[in-house]
Write a structure and sequence with these properties.
Glutaredoxin; Glutathione S-transferase Yfyf (Class Pi), Chain A, domain 2; four-stranded mixed beta sheet; alpha+beta; 8% strand; 55% helix; 2 domains; 8 helices
């Protein structure tokens, strides 16, 4: 049986955004059942867990053949065996791989520069100047993404793939601020992806865990 590691509880700002949600979503899209292994924030520092996840994060994933960490790598592993997430032709698979790496390397760092600063450092004296520069860089990157999506519902051909799963998981962070106002097409794309029943099931599963372990 496939197993996904997740936290028992996180603060409100992280609920629904912890990255085991991406893996849950991929498994739901692929129609693959899984179990949870839940850990708290003390257990993530245990030596036996650090062997499995050297950076004390979630998720860790395992099935009958592999044990893995890093959410995007896990999603792509699941996608390799799922026609629901990956095209069958070589050219299509290559495009999905390219866009998956773009989500992680070209878009997510720019998004997190803004989102992370707003969440954790907004009151620092350096924050306004840094955020002005970070937002400008993010807007330029989003403009390129918007141009690539023009006239298309999804990144590769006309169907949802693992690339869209990862890209929309990144873009969800923009909903915390006002950047979507400048890119309504990207907001519509993100909503198109996250309105899928598989996403809703994955989100519900993660939130159910946090609700069950809410501190008294």
């Amino acid at each position: 049986m496939r197993e996904v590691t997740g936290f028992t509880w996180v603060p409100d700002f992280a609920k629904g955004f912890v990255r085991d949600q991406r893996v849950r979503w991929a498994l739901e899209e692929a129609g693959l059942p899984y179990t949870e292994q839940l850990i708290n924030h003390e257990q993530k520092m245990a030596p036996d867990y650090l062997v499995r996840q050297p950076f004390a994060q979630v998720p860790v994933y395992r099935d009958e053949e592999v044990e893995m960490f890093e959410s995007a790598a896990i999603v792509m592993h699941i996608a390799e065996g799922s026609e629901a997430l990956m095209p069958g032709d070589v050219a299509g698979r290559a495009r999905v791989m390219s866009w998956a790496f773009a989500a992680m390397n070209s878009v997510e760092p720019m998004v997190m520069n803004v989102s992370g600063t707003e969440l954790f450092h907004a009151q620092e004296p350096w924050a306004p100047g840094y955020l002005a520069s970070a937002r400008k860089s993010l807007a330029a990157r989003l403009a390129r993404l918007s141009a690539s999506l023009e006239g298309k519902h999804y990144l590769v051909a006309e169907r949802f793939t693992a690339a869209d799963l990862l890209m929309s998981s990144v873009l969800r962070e923009l909903g915390r601020g006002d950047m979507f106002q400048r890119f309504p097409d990207l907001e519509a794309y993100c909503q198109r992806c996250t309105s899928r029943p598989a996403f809703q099931r994955a989100l519900e599963a993660q939130l159910k865990v946090f609700a069950a372990h809410e501190p008294a």
